[in-house]
Please model this.
Amino acid sequence: MIRNNKKYNFDLKNFLSKKNLNIHKKFLRINRLNFLKNLIFKKKRLRVLEFGTGISTLVIAKSLSLNKSKFYNKIKDFREENFIMYSIDNNKKFLNISKKNINNLNLDKICKFLFVDLQMELYNGIISSSCNILPNINPDLIILDGPDQKLIKGKCNNINFKDISFTPIQNDILKIEAFLLPGTIILIDGRTNNAHYLRKKLYRNWSYRHIKLLDQHIFELKDPSIGSYNKRVLNFYKSKKY
Model:
């Protein structure tokens, strides 16, 4: 099992207690972070798009770096740029903290950052919000846990989700669904209304489960492979050896 392979694993508490890290303890949810770490290991994720930066950014980057140590020689002929992540946010303060932490961990070659504006819009007849730009990446893991609701710009039909009486509904994943590859996973941390919205609006063959204890929503794209190359990548994901 992954937990027993110490060479390609790490203890979260020790990792996050490094003196050169700026971490707010109120955001430290060890159970959720352990789940995220083990998901990246078990599902052998290679490319991550994270909506909303924070402590999870450090855990993702570290996990991808260990996957790179383990799998680099096994996937050299994969054509994507692998072992990379983009963390995007509309809060410059949080982005700058994450950037500094990533640099202090020497993970800047793994993790890239993008500042975005989150704006209100009418998308396919639904009032929702979206990022004004997205990074140029086709991820195999998407994590939705932001950006900052309080900094959403504009109004749609006089509605703005920065009013805390609303739960934010973000549509970016729907806009990129068409080019996502079979095997892609979406992880939503909390944001149950957004998860329900995606369940209704995603049009491809996605499995779904809600881990109530951790309040994690997981979608996995179960479409058949789109060709021999994609089939080879799917076989890599499914291999039980780590």
Notes: The helical segments are 12-16, 30-42, 55-71, 92-104, 172-176, 192-201, 228-238. The longest strand covers residues 84-89. Residues 2 and 42 are 7 Å apart (CA to CA).
